[in-house]
Amino acid sequence: MSVDTSVRSVLRAPQVVRVLLGSQLGRLPTASGPLALLLFARQSLSLAAAGLLVAAYTAGMAVGTPLLARAVDRWRQPPVLWIAAVVSGLGFGAVALTGGHLAGAVVGAVVAGFGTPPLEACLRTLWPALLPPATVPTAYTLDIALQEMIFVVGPLVTLLAVTVGGPAAGLLAAAVVQLAGTAMYALSPAARAWRGVAAVRHWAGPLRVPRFTVMMLGVVGVGAAVGSIAVAVTGYAEAAGDRRLSGWLLAAQAVGALVGGLCWTRVRPGGPGRLPVLAAALTAGFLPLLLAPGPAPMAALLAVSGLALPPVLTAVFLTAERLAEAGTVAEAFAWVSTAFVVGSAAGSALAGLSAGVRYGLVVAPAAALLGTAALATVAAGHRAAGLTASRGA
């Protein structure tokens, strides 16, 4: 008897809608927070300070997410999430209260990033408890696809708050939304019932597994490709004479990713062997952007470039789940998120250093190609390990 693995069956399962919405709401500051920091710094400090605050927030998040997820693996989800949300909120509040003091604002931004609740990792550890095994890959893909809406809704929340209450209101809105989403998720019966697996843990966690570490390098490449597009598209919009185009163009890419993710839920996910194929498809999707056509064709090409992203990340999370040792699954998922964030920041920096729009657009396929090479190595290692196991049997 076949199991229904459709999106509808996932959403009908008890508690799924609640934890999914709570997680998405609590993760809005990953998109709204940097913009809120940017707008606040541009008024109270300077443009250079704005970049420094966003970098400090990103660095804090990159360091804090795996450590908080490790705490989740060892203990429980709700206490870690509550403490993290409060710490992050205090960080946003500290930035808002610093006025024109750069050092205090930087410290507040680091604290806000470091305390970011690891909701993404926590949610993905819940799926096996909430859904039949055959449906878990659909839940991964659905979550990744809906995550694209964070980068559409998050900035809108910040802009609304800043319009109503000024730059400091954007920071406070990020803290409140994050706390509300965390509460919605952490108070769910599924989150309160979840327990980590008792195991002997190595200090390196999932990074102790060589293939997992190589896969993280691949994720950095994918993240760099995605991060570079935001900067390159901004340059494209300025060259076209209308900065507002960048928002619409990036929204087109997000819509493409959403469509790609929803379509991928109808496909059998397969194993790690699909990693290089999907990453290669992502790389190919970035190449037509080098034509830099008019705004309407460019929007269509950006939508196409986003199609393969959710399938790639779904394959990565499924592989991470297989490679992670007992008691390190939440941390493994957190490392995937961290690698993507670090790659995105690096890609943004590289695209910003490029001279000209087309040179900026070259960063995406180049970074994605490097990521594909790393993921191909992981897939080859998986096949070799499977062959060795079969021979041993």
TrEMBL record:
* Protein name as annotated: Predicted arabinose efflux permease, MFS family
Q: Where are the transmembrane segments?
A: 45-68, 80-99, 139-162, 212-233, 245-263, 275-292, 298-320, 332-353, 359-381
List the InterPro entries. MFS_trans_sf
Would the keyword RNA-binding be found if you checked this record's keyword annotation? Answer: no
Which SUPFAM superfamilies has this protein been placed in?
A: MFS general substrate transporter (SSF103473)
Tell whether Thylakoid is among the UniProt keywords: no
Signal peptide residue numbers:
none
What keywords appear on the UniProt entry? Answer: Membrane, Transmembrane, Transmembrane helix
